[in-house]
Amino acid sequence: MEYKLFSNEIEDLKTFMLTNSWDYHIHRKIKEETIQQMVDDGYYQNGRESYWMIDHDKKIGFICIEDIEDSIVTFDIRLDATYRGQGYGHHALRWLQNYLFGEKDKIRIEGYTRVDNLSMRKCFTKAGFVKEGYLRSAWENADGSVTDGILYSAIQSDWQNNTITAIKLNDFAF
What we know:
Elements: E1 2-5, H1 10-18, H2 32-40, E2 48-55, E3 58-66, E4 72-79, H3 88-103, E5 108-114, H4 118-126, E6 130-140, E7 146-155, H5 156-161
Parallel strand pairs: 4-5
Antiparallel strand pairs: 1-2, 2-3, 3-4, 5-7, 6-7
Helix pairs in contact: 1-2
């Protein structure tokens, strides 16, 4: 498995985004014009770093790291439907930690998902991310519905020490 910096392979990006359904993202289907506009606007590069996930010379996933200039980052991972449920999400989360903590010296990585995305929630836990928050009515969907969200994070000190620090969510009643 390798991760290659996105360098405007626009047709590959369009093919990847258009041939998959993104059931746990705001838009399940993305329009070609939307992708082109995002590329034209510099979405995948301005303040972000984007990477292809490549396995056996095939682009199987795409990761967009947001707020790359900050010490705390968020991200979006998308996997080709053919490769979901095979451990690639876990691998990508481990790579993100090694890259962002080890090479970029970030202090925190935050990941958000819909409450009903059980596969991603399992990936977060398996990769050592800690569930920190249940966000009520926090995920707007393209059809106008609203879903609850979940916040997970990994912190550099846990990564360095190979530990998981428990959160203090209920230390006070307020």
